[in-house]
Design a protein that fits this description.
Elements (H helix, E strand, L loop, with lengths): L2 E2 L8 H12 L4 E6 L2 E6 H16 L7
Antiparallel strand pairs: 1-3, 2-3
């Protein structure tokens, strides 16, 4: 499950991602942006999203990135 981290909301997106990347090194989590908000999700969830995205594109579908 993704969790929005309130204290990051006022920071620029690049700063949010840098902080989340720095924090995730030991936690196994990665940042993801959804509708302008940055969330911290488990690496396995990101891998699943990437695989589903690839599968949809292989079927001829398009995604909004």
């Amino acid at each position: 499950m993704a969790v929005e981290i309130e204290f990051l909301k006022g920071l620029p997106q690049k700063t949010q991602i840098k902080l989340l990347n720095d924090m995730s090194v030991n936690e196994g989590n990665v940042p993801i942006q959804i509708d302008g908000n940055v969330f911290w999700i488990p690496k396995e969830v990101q891998d699943l999203i990437d695989n589903l995205s690839d599968f949809i594109e292989e079927l001829g579908g398009t995604l909004n990135n």
